[in-house]
């Protein structure tokens, strides 16, 4: 995610300073993409800082470097949960003259690493923005500036949300999708289906491949909402299973027709 | 499915006779794509007959018209279950001098209808073929002829399977995918997630939109294998739910890492 931001800004001719916990990745980025290292010297020169790490490391970065961030700068994160992040990061920034704005780009692939990062990763994608408590005028000003700074990323839309709205929705649209996909491949049949895999299998299992430590952290930070979604999908699946076990054609067709109708309604909005 | 076959053959200059239970669809096809109607007069002139209907209507067609099929012709179906179809259709054809070969193209989209049919629908897709009991030489001859006749469809590969192998695999790669996708959108959050939908949600729910009567028939004809897959996925999902409810990071990460490893293994084969 950080690599794609770096590539998008660099491609637009914006000067980028970067840091990565893996030194060789940072060195590769410095040859290919970025101007230099993000450190005590360069942090105060940045107008926008993108913290593209795990939840805990995002908070740690701010604990360590908040005092060095330039007055008026905007710091965003890209973490997939917002309640823990925004609460903690907004509190950390309180004493300083810069603004923290929780962000979550609705983009990415099942791959990770700088080599898979792309300058056009965010092109057309929605960006969810969770601004801190502030008056309407101040918020509008910050958001206009943030949009301007993010222009090289070519986001398709900006969605404002509270941290709670974000976390409830993301539990459904992203976290649940990863759990279901990851669970799907655990069937004993999974290893034995060569020549039988149509598009539906490929789509269902695309995100089965995932970064387990990162998603564990994200899931635990959103355990209440994700837990509800998991209960719901297990309950829904059990209804089909029961109808099938009872060979109840009418019930099974009603369940399928209901899902079809909901999906059409969502698409039609 | 039938429309895509008609368009593929017509695009290759092959003469096509067609039938559809909806007269207006047939009339549209006769203007755009096909030479004429498949009826008592034209059935005996066909070298290949593709029965692209529901399970019950496929069997009914053969009951009614088997006596008219030309000696040496090949009749295939495209039904998504093979045990019921092959057993019944092979028995129906027994007295006649043509060959029935159960088929299932691993292709299609979430849309149906002649307008959505495409001449290149099968290009590169696997075709699963379930040949009847016959000696090896006879089978090889029939398959070579079938491959030749299907050339305009440009299938990417032909996979031979028994009806049971087909049904077990298809329960996992296709039927389960449709149930899970259809169940996924039943969350109350589904109607309220605009601006939050990343690729993972879109992929997971693509086939939520489905033909409920057709899939009901297919699921009931494969209730044993699909029931097992549903039990397995519900059990797998429950393991994540329990680890999450217990805030058991180690267990949750192990479950996710296991799915990731299986998916990589499958991809790497």
From TrEMBL, chains A, B:
Matching InterPro entries: 6-PGluconate_DH-like_C_sf, NAD(P)-bd_dom_sf, PDH_C, PDH_N, Preph/Arog_dehydrog, Prephen_DH
Lineage: Bacteria, Bacillati, Actinomycetota, Coriobacteriia, Coriobacteriales
Short name of one Pfam family: PDH_C
Domain of life, source organism: Bacteria
Keywords, in A-Z order: Oxidoreductase
Key word Kinase present: no
Family matches, as PROSITE patterns: PDH_ADH
Name assigned to this protein: Prephenate dehydrogenase/arogenate dehydrogenase family protein
Homology family: Belongs to the prephenate/arogenate dehydrogenase family.
Domain Prephenate/arogenate dehydrogenase: 1-269
Keyword Transferase: no
